[in-house]
Write a structure and sequence with these properties.
Helices cover about 70% and strands about 0% of the residues. With about 325 residues, it is mostly helical.
Amino acid sequence: DQLRALETDDLAALKTAQIAALSTTQLSEGLSTDQIVALTTAQIQALTTKQIAQGLTTEQLAAMETVDFVALKTSQLRALTTQQNAEGLTSDQILGVTTGQVAAIEAADFAALSTKQIAALTTTQVNQSLTTDQIVALTTAQAQALTTRQIVALTTDQLAALETVDFSALKTAQIRALTTTQIAEGLTTDQVGVFATNQILALTSDQWQSLTTTQVAALNPHLITVLSPTQIYQGFGTGQIAALATAEIAALSTAQVALGLTTADIVALNTPQVAALSSAQVAALSTEQVAVMETQDLLALTAGQLAGLTTSQVALGLTTQQ
């Protein structure tokens, strides 16, 4: 009661030692939000970690001037409880903190931040502050709350740290925001392996072409089937076609084989990939595609696959050398 009776000017005149001597009860029950606002930066910095963790209510924390909040020491920030971080921090306070202060937030406390607080982080804070532990700690809802600008700001190491359950839940706009460098150097094979159907369909041709051969081989075969022949034609280079696993080759539709694969792609196929083609896929090949098939690949075809060849493919496609 005596504390609440103090005028804000009188409270601001208290020495830092007097502020540090206040009990946690005096802080939580004695100071109004107006009085918290009246505290000077030096007084805020004088608060002990115990006072921070046990004395400040979420309402008092939210009332703290941004200029005072960003002046908190690393030890004071680390003292904030999960509840204080989740319910007390305002968007303005988050915007104002330095990169070092963001990095100082414990992973468990970071995971407690609201989606609104996550979305309030600046691209600089994201790029220069977020630790891989904080990225790992992100909830699915928090990952989905990242803006496209924040997604672009992620380093390749940060992107690689994103849990597969969170990665597979990213929105199509977030997937489209990924740069070709992020895709080629940041995505892990585990992340590529959990691509959702809507995410695969959202990839641009440039993004497809940025996938490494190792990443292409990690794609879930059933996802290959959802791609249009045009997406395969425009999005895959010969190196990527050559990297497809035999299960991925076998998953291609006859339309994807006939219209999606170029003659250069056919040449790039290795013998195990050719052997994985079904008789229906073989029958779907154009005469131009048949004509460029390597002799050793043709020799690897089974009787069932050879039976799939049409009379036109044999008459117009096979060369005398084959």
